[in-house]
Structure prediction request, 492 residues.
Amino acid sequence: MKTLFKSIRFKITILYVAILALTLTLFSTILYHNVSAGLYNNMDTLLKSKAGGVAQAINTYWQTANLEVTEAGLKPEALIKRRNTNFAKVAQRWVKEESNDPRLLDILVQIFDTDGNIIASSKNAQGLTEISRKNFITVLQGKSRFDTVSSQVQSNRMTMRIYTTPVIENEKVAYIVQVASPLDSIQIALNNLRIVLFILLPITLFATGIMGVLLAKVTLHPVDSMIKTIHQITAENMALKLKVPDTKDEIQHLAETFNEMLDRLGRAFKSQKQLFEDISHELKTPLTILKGEFEVALTKVRSADEYEAMLKSALEEINRIAKLAESLLLLARLDSKEMTPQKMDVDLNLMIKGIINNIKGLAELKGVRISFEIPTGELSLHGDENQLKTLFLNILDNAIKYTPHNGLIEVSTKRATSVANVSIKDTGIGIPGEDIGRIFDRFYRLDTSRDSIGFGLGLSIAKSIAEAHGGTIRASSEAAKGTTFIVSLPLY
Ligand code: ADP
Prediction:
């Protein structure tokens, strides 16, 4: 359960539902307010026009009545509507005869005189709140007004919208028309809208929530199966691959990238395993020899010379093991980048001359000549002198080892644009084409029929050192003719 709340599926759904809830609430509020404002505006416009219609209709009645008055020869004051009992009668007559007109259905009409007394009132207006003193004063000042009041109309409590407007005659308020309409239809409509929105909103959110969970589940389903497979992958089981979904999305890309990583790790594990096997194998030979020699020595009491010879032979094997351990340690350190080159200014020509001087004796013993003509101009590098010495010593040592009597090793240095190229060319036994690509691999030696006493680590060490200095090593060879190594190192 705890993991469900933390799952991407849950987080996406919650975020999605929350954003939707916010949007829908905003939308519903705006919709409700617009509909409500629209309905009330319509009602106000209707009331206004009805009030105008009532005033006009009463006026028509009044004018007809006036004809009778004029015909009767009465004075013109009698024609003024204000505080005129005749007018009150006309108004009452109009209300009695016309207020039941279907066009006025649902509209309550009241006519007030300028003292605030009701002079006429439609039947359905019984009980409508009488105009308040305060409101009456504003209307008498010539201002129309809208009010919303709760009234007991015909024994029903209703909320009414009331429009009160003065009718002006000779710049004076002659009488006041009040029309009202119950707001219940609008309130019912708005209530219905509210209910619909209140019910729809949670239903929509719930439905989208469920859809969201399902959608996220479907989308993330490959991730679940990927997790299951990943659980099964172990160092021994690196061949296992993730199923790549054909979704052309980030999940497919993730699965592909993960499989590529598995391939890389698989290769690394394989070479690590190979390395362990090679190391065990290399250790086994000298240890077996040592064991054999000691066992033979212990079979009987021997002379001091015999013991000395045996100990010398044992020491040779021990030296071999020590050299192997040393080479492996150096490689491991170079690999782990733990051994950062102790960089200093190195004069390449001077350094190579020094190495050649050191190994000259060994070459002479084998009857091999080494030539090195120091070119004019300095070739300065920024590098670890000890490591660089090991690099060139390993290559030169090989050249001496694999070049027969009377052979020649030519060493030369050359400046290219931004690198120094050192070439070591021998006239030795050469390396067959099929092997040249592998001579830099760890423990790789050419077939055992060759007189090889190395471990096959010298060139891998040389390569690692060159790379640690940002350089490269290349080898080219022709069987029985010789081999050329070219070391390129960036110049200072
Ligand atoms: P090793 O210690 O066996 O010499 P290296 O890594 O230095 O190991 O060399 C790998 C193999 O490459 C050697 O076993 C050898 O067969 C071959 N090799 C290296 N240098 C030369 C060379 N100059 N001429 C011929 N073969 C060479």
Observations:
- The radius of gyration is 55 Å.
